[in-house]
Amino acid sequence: MVNASEPMVPPLIGAQLNYLLSHSPLSIKVEQIWSGSKNPPYLSDRFTLLIPFCLDYIKWDVIYNAQNPLVAPDIIFAAVDENFHPFSISAEGHSHSLKSILCDWNCKDPSKLLLLIHELRVLYNVYQRKKIGQLDDERLKFEISTIHSREGIEVSMNSAPDKADEVKFSVPLLDIDLNKMVHGCTWKHRQQIFLQVIFPISRKYSLAPTAPRIKLVGSSELKALFPIEDVKLPPWLDGMCLAEYLPIIEDNLNTQIVEAVAAIGARRRFIEALAPLFGRPLEADPVFCRKATVFSCSGVFTFLVHFSLPTQFPKQQPVLVLQSSQHFNSLGTPVMSPPLMDYPWSPRWEEPKMAERIYEFLAEECLNFKKYCNESQLQQY
């Protein structure tokens, strides 16, 4: 990602770009920054933005004039969107708001570019909806009409030379703030789970149309709490529409999220139960409680125990890795054991008993690990 504060970006332009990147609720990215001038000084006054839309990115070029940074920039849309004319779209006052932003452009107000991009993005969604509504596909028209009132839905046409045309829906699920459900989380953006639904475009009406391709989508940050890819989706029944499917999947998802948040408490209690046996952990994940490291010894042999706690804890047991503090390989890296899971475990035990059984297991396993460390060093000679 290009740093908008680099010296060749005029200060007024750099301030607006920095504000956009740091204050937008969307994870907007800069693909490239370049200069529109062939004569020195080569001031960087234009850039390509990657803007999240419908679980993908759209590319827009933002064109300023370094010689006259007081005026609003031009926005160049992708070639496939040549029919996107924002000022001709009626969208509950957004066209009027867009005109107001441009007419009242204040180059010293760093928030102006953010407002401009967000208004254009709203109008772009309206443009895509109208584009799909003009298709000769009764099923798609019905799908859009039945979920029209639901907030946050985005749609887009997917066209490729070697593939049949498709329409993609991005549907935000669950009207809950996941950030507030996890105490102390440091997520920059509000976490949201989406249902991606892809319908093939059909010219014929069918009483039993084929089921769309569906999957859940969430940010990589969300995996610390809730692995989206592990969620088993309810089946799409014959004749079902999206409006019928959404309540089913939301009920299913809500139950699993409540369980995932509760699992944080269970993991925290387990980590706390390690202290009476191993001493206070050297380090631990204080938010999601997915990792912890303790110090242990057997006579003069000292080692670390790394705990990796799965999101499905206590149904799934922690993975243990032992790390010697006295044995190193040829690269100077501490010798570590393979992942260990073959030890007594029951999800029905209380956390202190879980910790106690692991402590008893390690009292014997550390002898095997010490032998493993010694053999590893002998192989170096």
Automatic annotation (TrEMBL):
Keywords: Apoptosis, Cell cycle, Cell division, Chromatin regulator, Cytoplasm, DNA damage, DNA repair, Mitosis, Nucleus, Repeat, Ubl conjugation pathway. The lineage of its organism: Eukaryota, Viridiplantae, Streptophyta, Embryophyta, Tracheophyta. GO terms for cellular component: BRISC complex; cytoplasm. Pfam families: BRE (PF06113). InterPro entries: BRE. This is BRISC and BRCA1-A complex member 2. The keyword Manganese does not apply. One of its GO terms (biological process) is cell division. Belongs to the BABAM2 family. It is found in: Cytoplasm; Nucleus. CDD domains: BRE-like_plant (cd23666).
